[in-house]
Design a protein that fits this description.
By secondary structure, this protein is an alpha/beta fold. It is built from eight helices and seven strands. Helix 3 links the parallel strand 2 and strand 3. The longest helix is centred in the last third of the chain and has 16 residues. It is globular and about 75 Å long. The model has no long low-confidence stretch (mean pLDDT 93).
């Protein structure tokens, strides 16, 4: 992962509530442990018309949403099963953050472990964002704030460990490996104290 400190992007909106992980990435596409290429199947059943052609009205199929890195979604995003493929698919689509008034705990945990930022905001703020697709947002990980074009800023919850991993661009294992010399020093000091 790369360090994730700031993000400035337009939003892409899915107003639906209770978007579960099977809608994000249908189970029939979970035949791989590779992250690359999963974005092509994200929201697969919503992106297609009954004849199999792309639905031109679906937000991920619209050219004016190309490059948008922030998804704003209805309440209870990422509910359902615990598949890690869901954040992988969203990242492969080019998303870096998901905003909702409620994000399922397991999805939130999987997202953070993979460098996708889940932002939980008050329902009224999310409703405002849902009503303004394409609005330009600025997200700052260090201050845990989201800024709107009109200057308003909103804080969002992010635990210190997840924040440190995002800022350093590491997962949990990478975080520990970066501290390997300090761990070795601690163990050596403990062993020396025990031998005395």
């Amino acid at each position: 992962m790369e360090p994730f400190r700031h993000l400035q992007s337009r939003t892409l909106v899915l107003r639906e509530r209770n978007i579960d992980t099977d809608q994000i990435i249908p189970a029939r596409f979970l035949t791989t442990t590779r992250r690359e290429g999963l974005g092509a199947h994200a929201f697969h059943d919503w992106r297609q018309l009954p004849d199999g052609s792309p639905d031109p009205g679906f937000p991920f199929n619209r050219a004016d949403n190309d490059g948008a890195q922030v998804l704003v979604a209805g309440r209870n995003f990422g509910c359902g099963s615990s598949r890690e493929h869901a954040p992988w698919a969203l990242l492969d689509l080019g998303l870096r953050a998901v905003i909702s008034s409620q994000i399922a705990d397991i999805f939130r945990s999987n997202a953070l472990k993979n460098g996708l930022l889940p932002v939980v905001l008050d329902e009224a703020i999310v409703e405002e964002l849902l009503a303004q697709p394409g609005i330009e947002l600025a997200i700052d990980i260090a201050t845990r704030t989201l800024a709107l074009p009109d200057g308003r800023r909103f804080g969002f919850p992010l635990d210190a460990f997840a924040q440190a991993c995002l800022l350093e661009g590491v997962d949990q294992l990478g975080y520990l490996l970066a501290r390997h010399p300090a761990i070795q020093r601690f163990e050596a000091a403990r062993d020396a104290a025990g031998a005395a």
